[in-house]
Amino acid sequence: MSSPVRNQNLNQGKTLAYCSIFTALALIFSYVEFLLPIPIPLPGVKIGVANLVIILALYRLGFKYAFTVNMVRILISGLLFSGVFGMLYSFAGGILSIVIMYILYRTKIFSMIGISMAGGVAHNIGQLLTASALLSSTALLSYFPILVFTGIISGILTGFLSYEIERRLPSHIKL
Amino acid sequence: MIKKADIFLLIVLILIGCFSGLNSIGQFLGLIPCEALSSAKVVVSLDGKLYGTYDLSKDQTVSITRGNDINNIIIKNKKVQMTFSNCKNQYCVKEGSISMVNDTLVCLPHKLIVEIKNDEKAKIGGDVDVISG
Questions:
Q1: CA torsion, points A108, A173, A47, B110, in degrees to nearest 10?
Q2: Would residue B60 count as lying in a domain?
């Protein structure tokens, strides 16, 4: 006996549960990232481990919820770890990166590694552009090449990890 | 698991990186002169506005303060270093010293940029990386 109303409630509960789990996971990864010392003392250079969760969310939950998970993660991790000022950069990087990743995902010709790579680069560029705008200076643009390369490297790393996790993740975890 | 499009994307991104980094690569190979002239200036800008210019060849300590934000830079032996900052992330202090033309020290939380400029281009922002702009 399953009425349509009951099914709808179940689905809503499932959606909420998965979104919460992914958000919590992304937050933990943000924290891990916060703890890890970065070898290159440059603003904006990160490994982007949290991006791993976001890519998985994109594949399993779809763009709408992946976007929400990412925004909530940035908001909370900004309040907890990086401070309100750093949050601004994270939002710029996060929004640009997930939109780019979604576009590449929709084309269906890229693997997770390519998508993650583009996301990493987009994240860095978004942050750099925000910083340049805030400082109203073009001096920061000299960091552009190194941010592109660190984005590529970290993107390939997280993309590879996401791919391995995606393969092992039970297929029923999806919306 | 790696598709053709991934390789293509990788090549495109590397090309973008290299192309926008032509300046740095040229400097690295010695094709573009990057030595600071004896007349080179250290240009300090705060929040997008010029804070002050200082001679690179003159050893000095400069303290940049605005409200509670404090940064100290030391100019010594034609090198510039951020020796102190009360900002949160301390990236600017960790960046070490700079000595080449167009090198920058940045303290994002304080909106501070320190650049080395060869005299004639001693204005904020100069013409750094037109390609990537």
A1: 100
A2: yes
Cβ atoms of A53 and A22 closer than 8 Å = yes
Residues of B in contact with A135 (CB under 8 A): 47-48, 106, 108, 111, 113
Residues of chain B with Cβ-Cβ distance to A42 below 8 Å are: 91, 95
Query: H/E/C letters for each residue in A128-147?
Result: HHHHHHHHCCCHHHHHHHHH
Tell me the shortest Cα–Cα distance from B34 to chain A, in angstroms: 14
Indicate if B15 and B63 belong to the same structural domain: no
A4-168 is classed CATH 3.90.460.10:
no
ipTM of the prediction greater than 0.90, yes or no: no
pLDDT tens digits in sequence order for chain B, 133 residues long: 789 999 999 999 999 999 888 877 777 777 777 777 778 889 999 888 889 999 988 899 999 998 889 999 999 988 999 999 998 878 888 888 888 888 888 888 888 999 888 865 544 444 444 444 3
Backbone dihedral region of B111: left (phi > 0), alpha (psi from -120 to 50 degrees) or beta?
A: left
